[in-house]
Amino acid sequence: MSQTSNQILKNTGLKITSSRMKILDLFSIDCKPINAEYIHQKLKKEKINLVTIYRTLASLELIGIFKKVDLQKDSFYYELAGHHHHHIICTSCEKIESFDVCDVDVISKGILKKSSMFKAIDRHSLELYAVCKTCLKN
Ligand SMILES: [Zn+2]
Ligand SMILES: [Zn+2]
């Protein structure tokens, strides 16, 4: 992260509140998709209620600071929007690795050729699921 949470908030024009700062800080530290419950747990001492966390996540997603990541779990995960990347998620311990390689454009071209309804792809998301090396050993 080159920008501090303070700078990010300043650029949005949103009011800089301590809960917004703390939540943003977590994203910069962790650098992986996290959900509201995780934030709630991590910021226990700050006594930020879940509703505030949900609202903060939603409003920062709306203005493009966060990106929603659907990991096919009960709740939505968020991460800092930035460069294009994808995830591999361990189905056993839920560890997440990010990777930059993206050949989806190539796949899309083939799909569009066969599609009778669509002419172009605007965006995509791609998450891969596997059992990590550590879990395979156990
Ligand atoms: Zn694992
Ligand atoms: Zn991609």
Fold and architecture overview:
The chain is an alpha+beta fold. Helices cover 41% and strands 17% of the residues. The strands form 2 sheets. A 3-stranded antiparallel sheet has the order 1-3-2. The protein has a 3-stranded mixed sheet with strand order 5-4-6, with no helix packed on it. Strand 2 (66-69) and strand 3 (77-80) form a beta hairpin. Helix 3 crosses helix 4.
Biggest sheet, in brief? 3 strands, antiparallel
Q: Strand order across the biggest sheet?
A: 1-3-2
Number of helices: 6
Q: What global shape is seen? A: globular
Pairing-aware structural class of the strands and helices? alpha+beta
Radius of gyration: 17 Å
Strand content: 15-25%
Order of helices and strands: HHEHHEEEEHEH
Kindly report the average pLDDT value: 88
Ranges where pLDDT stays below 50 over 5 or more residues in a row are: none
- Separation of termini? 34 Å
How many E-type strands? Answer: 6
Heteromolecules bound = zinc ion
Helical content band: 40-55%
